[in-house]
Amino acid sequence: MTATALRAALAAGGLALGAVTVILSRSVPEEPVDYAHIVVYIGISWSFISAGLVAWRGRPKNPVGVLLVAAGLVRFSSQIGWWGNGFAELVVGLGRNFFLALVAHVIVVFPAGRLRSGLERMIVAAAYALAILGYVVPNAFDDGWTPNVLFVYASPTAVTVLGDLFDIAAIVIALLLVALVVARWRNGSRPARRALAPLILTAPLACVVAAAALAHDELGVSFTRPVDAALGWGGITTAMIPLALLVGLLRTRLHRSVVADLLVRLERSADPSDVRQALAETLGDPSLELAFPLASGAACVDEHGNTVELPAPGGGRALTNLSDNGRTVAVLIYDPFLLEEPELVAAAASAARLTLENTRLQAELRAQLVEVRASRARIVVAGDSERRRLERNLHDGAQQRLLGIRLALSLARSHAGDAAEVEGLLAEAEQELQDALEELRALARGIHPARLTDEGLRAALAALARRATIPVKVAAPPGRLPTAVEQAAYYVASEALANVAKHAAASHAAVTVTQSNGALVVEVVDDGSGGADAANGTGLRGLRDRVEALDGRLDLASPVGGGTRLRAELPCA
Fold first, then answer.
1. Is-contact 332 247, C-beta < 8 A?
2. pTM value?
3. Measured distance CA(358)–CA(275) in Å, rounded
4. CA pair distance 428, 541, nearest whole angstrom
5. What CA–CA distance (Å, rounded) separates 19 from 15?
6. Three-state SS string across 277-327, please?
7. Confidence (pLDDT) at 380
8. In this model, does residue 552 exceed pLDDT 60?
9. How far is CA 44 from CA 58, 68, 99, 113, 245, in A?
10. How many Å separate Cα 12 from the centre of its chain?
11. 167-181, 372-386, 395-409, 426-440: the lowest-pLDDT one
12. % of the chain at pLDDT higher than 70
């Protein structure tokens, strides 16, 4: 049976039970027909059934509608008592108790339809346990009415004591419900309060009236005469709960009319901050955030271009992806209570989708500008650091050697008369000069390798592999490329092999250069220990800046124990 057919069947059952109520109330000649109470009785039952059917149809996955329908149908069960047998009395007693337990369940789980805390689970479990035990246990000792199908042993004291205890427990549960609703209202956000608005007046009032009626009827507590008379009609307050829920559903639909105002506002201003503010005001959630995925898919940014971490599922925030032709335009991050108004969220998101696409582009541009500024700052710092390194190398290496040569020549001059001594000093000076030349050549290669300029990338990479401390296999196409591309490709390979030598503990590596679709792809792979992190290495960050300065892309894959793969794509068309 489909859900629609099931709802129709339950609605027909409710109509039938209403008719049975009228028929049974007229079937006992000695009892006068109280039409006013019959109308109120049927109205209360049908308020739950009708509200439940509407809520069930609008939120088929939310159990609130099912609970309301069940409460309305169970409410009709008290009319079975007109049949006057023991089984009928049992159904009537349990039905009245279960009706109140179902009402308590609805109050606790509204609007999300789920239990959120241990206290809520305890209240619901206690309500259902009390619905059974509060009727069955006292009547097991009561022989004062027949036919009592539950009777086991006659004990008027047990009936009185147990009845009073269960009545007090019911009053405590009713007051706990009042405290729960009030606490959720006081601690809730604006969307939460809007969702709880249907219950904040009706549920506490109904619970207080029910507790007062129970204290009056079962415990003998006396109030003023007007209050006692009003308690006889206290069931009307219970009927206010489903009616308030219907008003809440209607209010949600009416609230969606503000989407038209959102469209007008977005036409006037497409500034990213205004878009977020407009959505926040439309949805009534000041905490709403917008996140825009970058084209690279690596991260999300807010409307100002700052990186945004998407909250984990179940982390106290709700997420909705706004897509256009299968591509995510933006992500809404908002209060989870808005999940109870999915139509409103969807309507507002649909109205803002086109503007959000423009906003996404602006946010991505801002993110690129932020990264460009950071990249420039790193380049300046790297340049200063490199100049200091060159100064130290020249001062501590070649300069010291040249000073040593000068000293050796001075000593040779002072020993000009001793040919053997002069020969030794000149040989020492020649060796120092040779070492100084080698250091200057190595320093020059670090600044810019001459072979790269003279012979191209393939020859420069081959020379780089020969100087490596581990076997390195090189595969690169012949021919020349744009100078900036060759330099970037060379330094990607050079930095990668330097990291392999320092940190990877690898036995071999490979450098592969290919051209595909107008791009030069450089891959450096080793079989080392892995665990490299581009975010923590200044060398790798510098490489990323150099590659991205050419509108390229640098990717690093380095699982622990699985080697490292560094891949750079450089446009060269």
1. no
2. 0.55
3. 10
4. 43
5. 6
6. HHHHHHHCCCCCEEEEECCCCCCEECCCCCEECCCCCCCCCEEEEEEECCE
7. 45
8. yes
9. 21, 11, 11, 22, 14
10. 42
11. 372-386
12. 64
- Distance, in Å, from the CA atom of 282 to the CA atom of 565, rounded to the nearest integer, reads 48
Q: Which residue has the tokens 């100049």?
A: 387
What is the CB neighbour count within 10 angstroms for residue 542?
Answer: 19
What are the structure tokens assigned to 540, written together?
């790798």
* Residue 573 one-letter amino acid: A
Crossing angle for the helix pair 35-58 and 235-255, nearest 10 degrees?
Answer: 30
Task: Report the run of H or E that residue 361 belongs to, with start and end.
Answer: helix 342-393
Contact 34, 22 (CB under 8 A): no
Of 63, 135, 71, which is closest to residue 103 (Cα–Cα)?
71
Spell 360-386 as b/e; 16+ CB within 10 A means b.
bebbbebbbeebeeebeeeeeebeeee
Residue 128 has pLDDT above 90, yes or no: yes
Q: Are 104 and 59 in contact (CB under 8 A)?
A: no
Whole-angstrom distance, CA of residue 236 vs CA of residue 206: 8
Average pLDDT, the chain: 75
Distance CA 392, CA 443 (A): 11
Angle of the 118-139 helix axis to the 156-187 helix axis, nearest 10? 160
Q: Secondary structure of the chain: what % helix, strand, coil (to 5)?
A: 65, 10, 25
DSSP assignments along 459-522, one per residue: HHHHHHHHHSSS-EEEE--SS---HHHHHHHHHHHHHHHHHIIIII--S-EEEEEEEETTEEEE
- Please give the full DSSP string across 197-213, using - where no structure is assigned: HHHHHHHHHHHHHHHHH
Query: Nearest-CA neighbor of 478 among 523, 514, 454?
Result: 514
How do beta strands 519-526 and 564-571 pair?
A: antiparallel
Distances (CA, A) of 393 to 242, 403, 494, 555: 83, 14, 19, 32
